[in-house]
Design a protein that fits this description.
It comes from Rhodosorus marinus. One of its GO terms (biological process) is cytokinin biosynthetic process. The protein is mostly helical. The chain has one domain: Rossmann fold. Helix content is 40%, strand content 10%.
């Protein structure tokens, strides 16, 4: 836990390469912290051989179901090359999130309700 905390605090951006459960855990935690407005750092996922394609589908599905805010998509880039990851990070402009709206809206509604 201390190692992860140090990574989050020291980094200016997060670039994830394909990896195992530890990598996926770290990516999800970074995204959760962003949704909670705890940081405003970009997250680039290097989509080597399509590795993060299904992950991106899961995020979009979670948005459709109302569990994740649409705005998170401006903080994430699923890219095919390291150069595109660097370009995303260098050009990233965080969208300010209203702290009062973080938990409002459809968040937490029953699964399947529309």
């Amino acid at each position: 836990m201390q190692r992860k905390l140090g990574l989050y605090e020291a980094g200016d951006a997060f670039i994830a390469l394909p990896g195992g459960l530890g990598t996926l855990d770290e990516v999800m935690e970074v995204l959760a912290l962003r949704q909670l407005n705890i940081h405003s750092k970009p997250v680039a996922l290097l989509n080597t051989r399509g590795y993060f394609g299904r992950f991106e589908e899961l995020i979009r599905h979670s948005i459709e179901e109302g569990f994740v805010r649409q705005e998170i998509l401006s903080d994430i880039a699923v890219v095919d090359t390291p150069e595109k990851a660097i370009e995303f990070v260098e050009n990233y402009k965080p969208v300010e999130k209203n702290k009062e709206e973080i938990w409002s809206g459809d968040m937490g509604r029953e699964v399947g309700e529309r």
